[in-house]
Amino acid sequence: MGKKILVVSDNHGSMDNLTIALDYMKGQMDALVHCGDSEFPPKMLRNLVDCPVYLAEGNCDYYFTGDSEDIFEIEGHVCFVTHGNRYGVNWGEDELLDKALEMGADLVFYGHTHVPAYHVYEEEGVTVFNPGSIAQPRQYPPVPSFLVVELKDDGEVEPHFYKL
């Protein structure tokens, strides 16, 4: 049966597209991951869904209380969630990959760049995801996006990017 994780980032105080993504996944998601810059208090985000919520503090999250990053296990995967600004993600994923290896994570979720990304570092056994921005995209053409990561029973990780 596997598990489905909804991954979003960088809605910057806007509920519009976040609501669309949540409605799309209603009753289907086993976890919500927010990679930061929601600009909402964590409790508010947790009250939106009936599943575990894993959060990272973004550089614009002024109401954030708690850890700036999160690590959790699901379906045999160790997942690391960060906004990414503390790891220089605008210039590459090297620092982020090093941190994932240090933490023993095999799945990494980050935001900050507002551009969707998906990279498999096979040699290190780490897969890195950025859902892009659900409200303020920076890729060309600028299309808001979110990600659903399906964790299959056989261990396969299958990403699905959605554009709004």
What would you note in describing this structure?
Residues 4-153 form the Calcineurin-like phosphoesterase domain. Its EC number is 3.1.4.-. One of its GO terms (molecular function) is hydrolase activity. InterPro entries: Calcineurin-like_PHP_lpxH (IPR024654), Metallo-depent_PP-like (IPR029052), MPP_YfcE (IPR041802), Phosphodiesterase_MJ0936/Vps29 (IPR000979). The structure is a single chain. This protein has 164 residues and is α/β, with parallel strands linked by helices. The protein is 15% helix and 32% strand. The chain contains three helices and ten strands, in the order βαβαβββαβββββ. It has helices at 16-25, 42-46, 94-103; strands at residues 3-8, 31-34, 53-55, 70-74, 77-81, 107-109, 116-121, 126-131, 145-151, 157-163. A five-stranded mixed beta sheet has the order 3-2-1-9-10. β2, α2 and β3 (53-55) form a beta-alpha-beta unit.
